[in-house]
Structures are given as structure tokens and as C-alpha cells.
Amino acid sequence: MVDVHTPEQRSRNMSAIRGRNTKPELVVRSLVHRMGFRYRLHRKDLPGKPDLVFPALRRVVFVHGCFWHMHDCPYGRVRPATRAEFWSEKRGGNVERDRRHAADLIEAGWRALVIWECETRDPQMLAARLREFLEAD
Predict the structure, then answer these.
(1) How wide is the angle at C-alpha 32 spanned by C-alphas 26 and 34, nearest 5°?
(2) Structural domain boundaries of the chain?
(3) What is the topology classification, in CATH, of domain 19-135?
(4) What's the CA gap between 49 and 133, in Å, rounded?
(5) What SS3 class is residue 129?
(6) Average pLDDT rounded to a whole number, residues 58-84
(7) What is the DSSP letter of 51?
């Protein structure tokens, strides 16, 4: 299968993808703030540099893109036809790194929650899930 974009268009698209302050992350941050919780962003001293850190609660939240972290939803199951082996290794490496970071956080006494990009489309469900995680004993 041939890419629908020229190499220049694809390069421009890929260079625009951010690792921080993504739309799903901003949705979660706004919701959590409106719920009355305060947090820190991207603490470099914690494994995986979590997107939201709640130091007093010893909890962290990661907001993962479905494609990049291979979520089991229609967006995460997409398999690029161009450079398939590269993308398989890249995305598989992301998943393995996520597992290592989660294990390191648990070992250090932190609790972690992963919010998937597709979950940010339902604000009520997302709010309930976040509240349950942040208010749990």
C-alpha cells in the first residue's frame, strides 16, 4: 500500500506531533482542575515523566495516544502499511517502556492510571474514572 501523502507532507505531519500538552492531555488537565484537584506536570524525577502528578496522594496519571501506545481500540489497532516493521518495533517499544515505568512507579510507592486518548471523548465517564482513582484509599 502506498502512502497517501508525499514524503514532504508526511514529514510535516509527523513533526507536528507533540509529546506534551496534547489535546487529550489538556482535556484531562482541565477536567481534573475543575474537580478541585491540583497537580504537577511532567515530573522528570519519576519514571516515565507522568503527565499529571499528585504528590500528596502519591498518584500519577498518564494520558496515552491510542495509536502510539497500541490501545485495544479502533485507533490503536491501526497498522501502518508503509515501513510496517519500523512502526511495529517503535510502537512495541513504547508499550514495553510503559510497562517498565508502571512497575518502577509501583515499586516506589506510587499508584498510576492510564487514560487513553479515546476515553477523553466521554467527559462524564472520564470524570467518574478520575474521581474514583484520585479519591480511593
Answers:
(1) 100
(2) 19-135
(3) Endonuclease; Chain A (3.40.960)
(4) 19
(5) helix
(6) 92
(7) S
pLDDT at 12: 80
pLDDT tens-digit readout, 73-120: 998 898 888 888 998 999 999 999 999 999 999 999 999 999 999 999
Non-local CB neighbours of 46 within 8 Å, separated by 6+ positions: 53, 60, 105, 108, 110
Tell me which residue has cell 508502571: 102
Supply angle C-alpha 55, 40, 130, rounded to 5.
75
Q: What is the per-residue burial (b if ≥16 Cβ within 10 Å, else e) of 83-120?
A: eeeeeeeebeebeeebeebbeebeeeebbbbebbbbbb
pLDDT digits (tens, 9 = 90+) for 6-47: 878 877 877 767 777 899 999 999 999 999 999 999 999 999
Cβ-contact 49, 42 below 8 angstroms: yes
pLDDT at 2: 65
**Does residue 106 contact residue 25 with C-beta atoms inside 8 Å?**
no
pTM, to two decimals: 0.86
